[in-house]
Fold this sequence. Notes:
Largest sheet: 8 strands, mixed
Number of domains: 2
Order of helices and strands: EHEEEHEHEEEEEEEEEEEEEEEEEEE
Helix content: 10-25%
Structural class: alpha/beta
Amino acid sequence: MKRLAIVGSADLGQLIAYHAVNDGHYAVTGFFDDFLQQGTMVNGIPILGKVGDAEKNFNAGEFDELMIGIGYKHFESRKKIFEKLAAGIPIGKIIHSSCYVDSSCNIGNGVFILPGCILDRNVTIGENVLLNTGCLVAHDSSVNAHTFLSPGVTVAGFVNIGSCCNIGINTTIIDNIRIADETQTGGGTVVIHNIDAPGLYVGNPARLIR
């Protein structure tokens, strides 16, 4: 079994570690975290060092693949660290065994797909994307790099969601919609028109509030 290291030891990093082990994807060797001392234990998993130590530790043979456990409140850091480390370290992915992912889908490195998701024909998921529990992405839709889909998001066919988006819980996106990079939607939002500018959108139909 391959050995996984995770950048970030807070809630998302711990969630990645949990599913990596309990769903049989990886053995987790440790976290890289700039805010905790090396050797500190987090739920029984050690802090291996700072984020800047990751490439050195990989070259020393301490782990095989890496994932980014930095959440949606820090998209800029998440993207920057991913792109820097992916240049020299293999990036892993976790697709929970309870998910249905059609064989025609294209899933990028660094993707974390939580239990109960469904991805239909010709879906594309970009690098470093997170799909939380129970998301449904219909045929021929795409979710671009670093984006988060919250629990219960429903995406119809031929939708294109931009990069670094945070799509809120139970958001519904009808077919043939384009959503701009860095868009956020509130819980229960219904998107029936293209979103061409970043911002926070809420309601049914979705409206820009800031």
